[in-house]
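Repro case for the chain-ordering regression, as requested:
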Amino acid sequence: MTEIKLTVNGTARSDEVEPRLLLIHYLRETAGLRAANVGCDTTSCGACTVLLDGESVKSCTVLAVQANGRSVTTAEGVVQEDGTLGVVQQAFRENHGLQCGFCTPGMVMAATSLLAENPHPTEQEVREGLEGNFCRCTGYHNIVRSVLAAADKLAGSSSSTEVNA
Amino acid sequence: MIPASFDYEVAGSAAHALSLLAEYGEDAKLLAGGHSLLPMMKVRLAQPAVLIDIARVPELSGIRIDGDQVVIGATTRHAEVAASELLRAEVPLLAHAAAQVGDPQIRHRGTIGGSLAHADPSADLPMALLALGGSVEITGPAGIRTVGADDFFTGPFESVTGPDELLTAVRVPRGAGVPWGYQKFVRRANDWAIVGAAAYGGRVALASMGGTPLRATATEQALQSGASISEAAQLAAEGTSPGYDFHADVDYRQHLARVLVKRALEGKTG
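-- result from build under test --
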């Protein structure tokens, strides 16, 4: 067992883990955060996407020990302090950016990372920025619309566009 | 899918990583981004007894100019290579190739050294390094040796890097203004190339056309003798023996090589 210390959604944690424990299993089973899903389990579908030091990663292909000393953000972590949805989440809701919802936590985190790197993406840049996330329901159009709406909202707000915006 | 058990060691320096390699020998594998190794471990194609994490070694990461070359630390991630203003200006082919790897999440984790050491003949960066005529620095018990791209890849998923050695840096020529093109033919987003072609000056490299990334030597020689791009590109598949799979058979891959090399020589990217 190896001790890891990391920050998850702003809260410091310390846990003893097996080196082979994947970050997705650490988040879901050790930390009890069930937003990120196990989808394909092969670095393809993006349902397990979380932020590692603010950048999107597929947590099925990261070991928990690799997150030692780092900061992890899941979809639970982008909810605002008063419990209302974060800007990206709200944009998905308003633009029908989800149907079954399985891919949504990963989509929201991939979109959050994309908007942090590129606050004013074109539609094409959104499509390419989400190429690591599969949705089997929507046909993607409303997801792209949601991300563009979130970008507009973030650009219009006075707050910064950092991770938990 | 869960990897088999292993012990986990964190290297604090390149020298420490080498001493850990010396201690554990072939039972150990180096871990940087883990985006080639962990998928193999999850399906138990790889079951190393020890993982040596080199991702936290500062000296192995970064991009700098050294004379007429740009030196890229082995654990520099694809996203950093793709976004580097220095590389976009001095070695645009490499920045472009890094931006074609996988998807954004993969590029946030995967590293240039990891991709080259993995030596997948269908991957972007091995082909890019070969087209550029770059080299890799390999550090071992006897010191540092520099191996050119033409000699580095020895077979599918095999390179000259020994089990007691560490790929520490990648060297590519500065070439602002040198004509280049890059073509990657895929059926799905974030896939490996069914066939890839990269052209840089008079050098032309192919992906997925054999057990290693290959030079299109007949094309290069024709260009040198004054042939037109169209004539030279017709020779792109000479001497290649690509594999076949459900995406493409041998004839189709050779056809793609001719088409993609022509486009790459015309300076097209895609």
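Ordering looks correct now. The mean pLDDT of chain B is 97.
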